[in-house]
Write a structure and sequence with these properties.
The chain is an alpha/beta fold and 241 residues long. It has a single domain, classed as 3-Layer(aba) Sandwich (Rossmann fold). The chain is built from eight helices and ten strands.
């Protein structure tokens, strides 16, 4: 049955998915795939399929924030997707994480609204172990600079005390912050989806998120390289399962 938001059904026939937030990033994923074919563009959900190392891959954007990501997870599971990797962007919370470095999320602080709508905050947002291990191995084999640890998923970076909150999580060893990882990991776990998140650092610690995101969107070199690296890492990991 065609899903109401993503506009896809079981005939897609892909068990593995890569999930950028931005619909425009689907074009960059397509460059890595053989025989890419556009499927649908409904709301924020733009999708295509292609093959990587002979394995069929679905690439679909999820939009911005945990709510739209949660809807994507629910409907992808219903059409037969078994494993998914978010390929997103984040801001670093620790020194020594360079622009374009990859952050592979072991787990996420659930400071978003979407995951909390599903289950009590005591339930952890944790990556699937097999997929997490495959991402780390792929990053190592490709020689990509990367960091593995906890990320912070929040509801908006325009809240009045955002800087103070980020400083607090930084003191607790959290590596970076995004808006979607907690929802993906929590809802994925509840629905039996193998889920993981790999993030391209586009904001150096202490810098303006809004200004740095603008630079990332325009394709500046370090962050554009990081995006290519996270796409390859995700595809290598998924097809190794």
């Amino acid at each position: 049955m065609k899903q109401p938001h993503i506009g896809l059904d079981e005939t897609v026939g892909a068990a593995y998915a890569v999930l950028p937030g931005d619909p425009a990033r689907i074009d960059r994923v397509a460059a890595f795939l053989d025989d890419p074919r556009e499927l649908a563009f409904s709301r924020e959900y733009r999708s295509l399929t292609g093959f990587y190392n002979g394995v069929k891959i679905l690439a679909m954007s999820t939009g911005m924030g945990g709510c739209s990501t949660g809807i994507a997870v629910e409907e992808l599971v219903r059409i037969g997707v078994k494993a998914a990797v978010r390929i997103g962007s984040c801001g670093a919370l620790q020194k020594g994480i360079g622009l374009g470095d990859l952050i592979i999320a072991e787990a996420a602080v659930r400071d978003d609204g979407a995951s909390l709508a599903y289950v009590d905050s005591r339930y952890p947002a944790v990556a699937d172990f097999d997929l997490l291990s495959a991402l780390k191995k792929a990053a190592e084999q490709n020689g990509f600079p990367h960091h593995v640890g906890i990320v912070h998923s929040h509801e908006s970076f325009y809240i009045d005390d955002n800087a103070e909150q980020e400083a607090g999580w930084a003191k607790r060893g959290v590596l970076g912050s995004d808006m979607e990882t907690a929802a993906l990991l929590t809802i994925g776990r509840l629905r039996g989806l193998k889920a993981a998140s790999i993030l391209n650092n586009v904001v150096a610690t202490g810098e303006s998120t809004a200004e740095s995101i603008g630079g990332y969107a325009s394709g500046e070199s370090l962050t554009a390289t990081g995006e290519k690296r996270e796409i390859k890492t995700a595809l290598d990991a998924l097809t190794s399962l």
